[in-house]
Amino acid sequence: MADNSGGNATDDLAGLDFAAVSPAEFARIVKGLSAKQLTEFMHGEIRTRVLSEVFGRMREQFRPEAAGQLRALIRWKITGESDEVYETSIAAGTCTVRAGRSDAEPRTTLMMGDADFLKLVSGNGNPVTMFMMRKLRIVGDVGLASGLTRYFDIPKA
């Protein structure tokens, strides 16, 4: 195994197979990087792979027992080198995720930069604190947005 102690952390990340990284390991990696490093890392094909993997895992990490009878469409707008939109639909104890914006009206829309998104979904960012610090912008149901983390099994680093 190569010693990466002198390497650039973002270069080390670029070589990862994100599909093989567990949620807990992902949380540990994100925790170890600054917002600047995370932002530098999230470019091009790597950004596409990371966002795809994170949203792809939402179905697996969904906690239907916590959601109960909740019905909601959550739109995520991640800003960075380009705006990426994903939608999470929670209904009848299931969670579905799609890339892109539908014509449906979301109950809440969450907007944040790449680094803040990675911190939020890895359990390294508190949504209420991020909102108060204006790192997370919410349009629509703020109560739903502030409680979203309880509907997903989010690792702690």
Automatic annotation (TrEMBL):
Domain SCP2: 62-152
Highest taxon in the source lineage: Bacteria
Coiled-coil annotated residue ranges, if any: none
Pfam families named among the record's database cross-references: SCP2
Stretch forming the signal peptide: none
The protein, known as: Sterol carrier protein
Organism: Streptomyces clavifer
